[in-house]
């Protein structure tokens, strides 16, 4: 038996007037996901427990079968694992975004124009982060370069308990109400302020400005946490697994769970990613003997954060054709398989951030197909099916444990 999970990050949304009252999932052309809905088990699952942040970290923990209330310690420690950064138990890791703030005036009065600095490229970000390390780094505060706008800071022996805001939650808003406050916060706020004094003049930013691109003119610290650990997926379920994603967060979860992390050249985390390459790598992994593969595709979430309806629809359609379709064709080589397609959380275009509402899922079993002639992969159709309150139990249901 082979098991495949395909997760389209942030696909669910609200009905939109410009789509005739449909959600992007309903409006998009998704023949392969709709086919699964006609022959699979549809339902809704709550991946974000009550009172926990509606983040991809919490939600993907649930989807992978781990109770966030037990295992979640913060986002950044998970990303640190993927980046090969060793944390001591007393260390605190922070996500360090490269962002674009509005121009002149006191730092507190600026607005968050872009949480991703125009989706800055990794080579450009590497040069920017080198300047950040040189200016702000020392034996206590260490900066590490990641991918695109997503980087890491570690406070060796640092405190925790900060109330920090993800920058993608405040796009277009003045940052004053969302800046760090309280004991020990001043040092982090000072890093952010100081970065805004030297980054605008960095050669990379000058060149980006000349090309009409948004500059990475400040860092933004958030998502703190201490060292993470997970029980082995193999010991929990008796399966050898692999994970395929462009995101350090998902790679980190995979490493912690004992999965093989499979890199795909051209996987970017946005609409330019190599959708079909991810599917083909997943099939290779199964042919090589792995039992389980988890494919994560970030692009609908990025489109949601950017408020880009056209790109979100296109991302959903690309996942359907080049990931779900490719996987379905390739799985026919195997005698038996189960396939689950779902999301982790909604990223509504109108809000441009995550919400904690339940998300649709579909489980197709080759050995036991169902018949739902009117089936479609959508929020409204899934709501007619089963409902799972504790999202971390969905993996048990999918695997038949």
Structure description:
With 401 residues, the protein is an alpha/beta fold. It folds into 2 domains: 2-73 and 229-399, Alkaline Phosphatase, subunit A (3-Layer(aba) Sandwich), CATH 3.40.720.10; 82-225, no CATH class. Helix content is 34%, strand content 19%. An 8-stranded mixed sheet has the order 9-8-10-1-11-12-2-13, with helices on both faces. A hairpin with a 2-residue loop joins strand 5 (141-147) and strand 6 (150-155). The protein is globular, with a radius of gyration of 21 Å. The two termini are 13 Å apart. The mean pLDDT is 95.
What is the 3D shape? Answer: globular
Our Rg estimate from Cα atoms comes to 21 Å
Q: What kind of assembly state do the chains in view correspond to?
A: single chain
CATH class of the largest domain: Alpha Beta
Structural class category:
alpha/beta
CATH superfamily of the largest domain: Alkaline Phosphatase, subunit A
Q: How many domain units?
A: 2
Number of distinct helices:
15
* CATH fold annotation of the largest domain: Alkaline Phosphatase, subunit A
Report on the biggest sheet: 8 strands, mixed
Secondary-structure element series:
EHHEHHHEEHEEHHEHEHEHEHHEEHEH
Q: Low-confidence spans: pLDDT under 50, at least 5 residues?
A: none
For the largest sheet, list the strands in their spatial order. 9-8-10-1-11-12-2-13
How many β-strand runs?
A: 13
Strand content: 15-25%
